[in-house]
Design goal:
globular, alpha+beta
Length: 178
């Protein structure tokens, strides 16, 4: 934005690139602030869950259609969604799905597939997000749900993140008795 202020004679293409980058960073910072606020609510024991019956298939498909043009535009999302009506918190399910898909995007190669499956067993529904990324080492699997934890390797050092996503996912899944 300072470049725009200093250089009044930029052409439209250069201006649009700067605007797009600024907008991307604002969205990223908004997501970080939101995650920090949710993490604070979790730690404070504040109840943030308000359940209502929703059609999960439609809700998840709508979110995936948005992701195909935003956070996952460089990946292919394959969905296998069973029709299920469940009593859930929409904001929580949105956060769970967004965090899991964002992780798949961050830690798998562009152009690869991300699979989202919604199914039901005898007692609950199962939401599974999978990809072909490198995965998490066995010694770090017990730590990934800790607040601010990020596995230390070359990929995580070059990938933006706060280590709050899976901490939040775990709490939200637990609050749904998952």
């Amino acid at each position: 934005l300072q470049t725009l202020q200093k250089h009044k004679q930029l052409d439209e293409e250069e201006k649009n690139k700067i605007y797009a980058n600024a907008l991307h960073e604002v969205k990223r910072l908004d997501s970080i602030v939101s995650n920090i606020l949710v993490a604070r609510q979790i730690e404070g024991g504040d109840s943030i869950i308000q359940k209502e019956p929703i059609e999960l298939h439609d809700f998840i498909q709508t979110k995936l259609d948005i992701f195909k043009h935003s956070i996952a535009k460089n990946h292919s999302i394959k969905a296998n969604l069973t029709t299920i009506i469940a009593e859930v918190d929409k904001i929580a399910i949105d956060s769970i799905l967004t965090n899991l898909v964002e992780n798949s995007v961050k830690y798998s190669e562009p152009g690869t597939e991300i699979h989202v499956k919604l199914s039901q067993n005898n007692t609950a529904f199962v939401l599974r997000v999978s990809d072909n990324g490198s995965g998490i080492s066995d010694q770090n699997k017990e730590h990934i749900f800790k607040k601010f934890y990020r596995e230390q390797n070359d990929l995580t050092r070059t990938t933006k993140g706060t280590g709050l996503g899976l901490f939040i996912v775990k709490h939200l899944v637990n609050s749904h008795k998952g």
